[in-house]
Amino acid sequence: MISRNLLALSIASALLSLPAMAADNPGSHQHGHAEMQLAFSADQVEILILSPAGNMLGFEHEPRTPEQHEMIESVTGWFGETPLVNTLDSTCTVVATQVQHEVGGGHDHDEHDHDDHEHEDDHDHDHDHDHDHHDHDESGHDNEAQHSDITVTQTLNCPGLDQSANLTTPLTTRFSGIEDLDIAWAGPDGQGATRLEHGEDSFSLGR
Description:
alpha+beta, 11 strands
């Protein structure tokens, strides 16, 4: 199985020569914004998703209720079984998925090797874990809830991928918090980039 680090390195290498995304790219952590990077090779696609946790969970602090714990498990499970891109004929299947987030201590979830979970509970945190002493801004929201991210890496096998000119993604319909999704890709046929708004679920590779 491809490790998260090797997968991320592979995608980064494939996308190294890509031009910058749109000049108005909101940056690495802006609520409502997410990024997807794709690297194609024959029938295989490697995916890297970067997003603020709030876009997908609705919160970015440590889970405080059973419902919030269930939300993390539900979203993590969804990533493990759902192709994050697909052909119009839905030929893609998930080979491997890893989810890394900073919510609740920052855990790695490997959906295809559950004995390989890496817990990062020993990381230093800049906030007090005593929930009675959270810092609040003027709106009453926790300041700690503004800088938690989710990183998802996924490998898909997609028969017919090399012949597909259009792909779909469920991200912009599954998560109401994603207002826009920047997509960049590279492969044997070239490279490109586009942006999808919430509710838009298909894009063209320009083949």
